[in-house]
Amino acid sequence: MRFAFRLASALALALAVILAVGDAARSIAASALQVTPLITSWLQTAPAGAEAAQNWVQTQMGAAWWDWILLPVLNLPGFVVFGLIALLFYALGAKPKPPLGRIAGTA
């Protein structure tokens, strides 16, 4: 299971880096800081998927979930969201520390 979390962490980190490089390139071209919210990137790449996700969340969980919880997260820069997801999966996939007072590898 740890392998799955580590793999998900690596994929989320790779996507965060891709989104950060895209924002950096736009910032350099504009000579000003340009960050793209995740919802904007999602609507540009897969508008049907974004609308389907919105409809599903609003019908299954209620409109409040989309408006108050998911939309503020989706309005954050994409590299921040995927960076935090990568950290979460990395923490879930980390090896447990040995108990205090014991030396690892001894019986």
Walk me through the structure.
By secondary structure, the chain is mainly α. The chain has two domains: 1-35 and 78-94; 37-76, no CATH class. The protein has helices spanning 2-30, 38-45, 47-60, 63-74, 78-93. α1 (2-30) packs antiparallel against α5. The longest helix is centred in the first third of the chain and has 29 residues, at 2-30. The mean pLDDT is 91.
Strand content: under 5%
Secondary-structure element string: HHHHH
Which parts are unreliable, with pLDDT below 50 for 5 consecutive residues or more? none
Shape: extended
Overall helicity: over 70%
Backbone structural class: mainly alpha
What's the gyration radius in Å? 19 Å
Work out the count of structural domains.
2
What is the count of DSSP helices, taking H or I runs of 4+ residues?
A: 5
End-to-end distance, in Å? 25 Å
Task: Summarize the biggest pleated sheet.
Answer: none
Per DSSP E runs of 2 or more residues, the count of β-strands stands at: 0
Average residue pLDDT:
91
Gist?
The protein is mainly α. It has five helices and no strands. Helix 3 crosses helix 4.
Quick tags:
107 residues; mainly alpha; extended
SSE layout and pairing:
Blueprint: H1 2-30, H2 38-45, H3 47-60, H4 63-74, H5 78-93
Helix pairs in contact: 1-5, 2-3, 3-4
